[in-house]
Amino acid sequence: MLETTFHSLIAVLIVMFMVGVGWLFGKLGYIKKEHKSLMIKLIICAGMPALVVNNVFGNLDLGSLDRPLLLFLLPALSMLITLGLGIVLAKILKPDARRRGGFITMCAFSNSIFVGLPMNTGLFGNAAVPYVMCFYIVNTTLFWTIGNYLISRSGEGESHQKGFFKNLRKLVSPPLVALAISLPLLALGVKMPEPVVRLAGYMGNIVTPIALFYIGYALHEYGLKSMKPDKHMLGVMLVRFICAPLVMAGLSLAFGFGGMPAGVLVIESAMPVMTQAVVVAAAHDADEGFVAGGMSVTTLGCFVLVPLLMLFLKALGII
Predict the structure, then answer these.
(1) Distance from C-alpha of 35 to C-alpha of 75, rounded to nearest angstrom
(2) In the chain, fewer beta carbons within 10 Å around the N or the C end?
(3) pLDDT of 159-203, one tens digit each?
(4) 8 Å CB contact between 278 and 213
(5) What is the 3-class SS of 42-110, one letter each residue?
């Protein structure tokens, strides 16, 4: 238990330190409002597509996985269920139009790589990496389609949401294009040249630090009051920390899927809000302050959640 707590604490502290650097740079004037557009473009148009290519071709070996279909099916079902829960909660809690898409997206999708990967390798060892990658692929695909679409609708407001082709364009983004190209190539057995994978790794490494610096700056810009746990924030935490892992654990039991792979999926489902959600909210002029606050609060909450979740998984006999 002490080791589990230690790994949880380290992962959380790293994230919050980098957010703190962004906040400090904003306070000192090193990051300014006019820099936000460049940071968003670097993440969405350069870093994320490269990160997708590196993770698909550098870290995923479908042939080595046990029951690979379930490794994609269970996360997809879990995210769609939590997405539905987010929609229901949005109808009950009634967040305003600029916040609604971010609220629903925060309920459904988690930080599967920067927090989820070190958390799972700390808990289960390096054998967890391929299973994290499967969750990451599903998480990224659904976020950059459904999540991106929902947040973009919030940014535009209720009066600009009609038009099939306009709505269709919202589903297409550079990270999604990278996934749409990379996954079929991987399934066909195509090997990406090693220098290309390395280059993608270097470029993909910019995503997390820039996104966390951006979140820190957003917290400076909107004030730490954006982290105040109002009813909407509490709703997100309810789904992220209780409903999502319960749904994934229930699906694992229902499909007879257990052991370390199931444990990885449950831990991944309970990770904090995606850092990219903040960037997408800013890109579409949605309520980025709320999303930034939610990402920070749920990251801090991981420290308490993960040790309890491990005890829960052992009690159910999943791990």
Answers:
(1) 35
(2) N
(3) 444 555 555 666 678 998 999 999 899 888 888 999 999 999 999
(4) no
(5) HHHHHHHHHHHHHHHHHHCCHHHCCCHHHHHHHHHHHHHHHHHHHHHHHHHHCCCHHHHHHHHHHHHCE
The domain that holds 202 is classified in CATH as 1.20.1530.20
* Domains identified in the chain, total number: 1
The backbone torsions φ and ψ at residue 162, rounded to the nearest 5 degrees and listed phi first, read -100, 160
Place of tokens 């990224």: 140
> Rounded to whole angstroms, what are the CA distances from 42 to 22, 136, 187, 253?
16, 20, 28, 41
Cβ distance 270 to 240 under 8 Å?
A: yes
pTM of the model: 0.84
